Amino acid sequence: MNKKTQYFLLGTLLLAGFVVRLYKITNPIADWHSWRQADTSAVTRNWVKHGVDILTPRYDDFSDVSGNGLFNPDGYRFAEFPLFNLVHYSFYSLLSSFFSLELVGRLTSILATLISSVLLFLLIRRHTTPTVALLAASIFLFLPYNIYFTRVVLPDPLMVTLVLAALWTQPSSRPLTWIFGSLAVLVKPTAIFFLLPLLKDFWLFVSLLLPFGIWRIWEHRFPAGIPASLWLLNGNHIRFRPAWFRWLFGERLGDMILGQWGIFPFLLGLFQANSYFLSWAAGALLYLIVFATGNIQHDYYQIPLIPIVSVLVALGVVHFSTTLAKKAVMVFCLLLMFGLAWYDIKGDYQVNNWSIVRAGQAVDKLLPKDAIVVAPYNGDTAFLYQTNRRGFPNLSLPIKDLRDRYGAEYYVSVNYDDQTNAIVKKYTILEQTPEYVIVQLVEPIRP
Is residue 364 located within the same domain as residue 330? Predict the structure, then answer.
């Protein structure tokens, strides 16, 4: 296959990969993992409102995320170095006349993923053949899991792009490898596991942690803004227990990612992988082991697995497809893989509670822009994000304490539970519908 044909096919794949990611692209940030998307998007939105400050990123949540009883009235957000937000903000500055901030955030992840697919193709072609490289890029682009999780407002797709850029530049430019690898680790420190193929250049590999270490030293100046994270390692003691194997290798890799029928070519590919791919796969396995609870708790944690999974499936398909009958078997396996995986992932696109969107729109129209609100939603910040206001996603203290200590002025709820009914009786109702209620935390003058 000549290079002109390769690049034509790759271009066709990129176009199709872009189109499939437009499915429900205008969804509000209220679909699957909306809390994490809302937190990420809120940092960019605060830059739009108040100016860029990359060293002290802020979001909307004032509650204690540190696990140490530290409320966060400044809204500091030190979950990761905000490189994704900087790219998001830059694109939004150019496109704000045409698209919403949330849509630009999704497009940012899509663009990163299209670049990733090109890098994956180039990297795999270097180590195998153009056929394997094109097939790996195809699987990467069209796995239903990866379609959904690469059109979300999360830093993970950008981290994957930077990892692949570091791996691709390794033989030709150590400085570029270091730059891309360091940025990947800054965006998500878990990237270091997927850079394991660089380990043969030991000092380069170790030095990738230096910028991240500096960032960690800096962020400890703002302890209230650092989310508790040690629990991600093995907080529920699930590592190597039967449930760990079931969830990661059954539910996630087997069902959600490979749709059951992709397991066969995946295993074949493991036996055909060279030392480079095996070191990459070993890094992925080590990541699942070290961050045992995180990978069980959050299915978006498997995003960085997809490049090596795609490579192994492609290797297995090409190796097995030596006759027409075997090719037919592999086509059947791939079709079922995509179909069953789509059946598993399609529910993630659903907005499960439109009430938080409509209540948020009402708050945004009715309340002052600088109002501090309490928007309880079981601690999920997706509702708070929809209000376009800062405040609290839960009632971690009595409502009077949130008002007196932290300046909370309004309460908004989409749930008429006992807690909401008690607040409605005591304070001033500004707007009430069957779906939501907005309350000013001022006691009315009663006759």
Answer: no
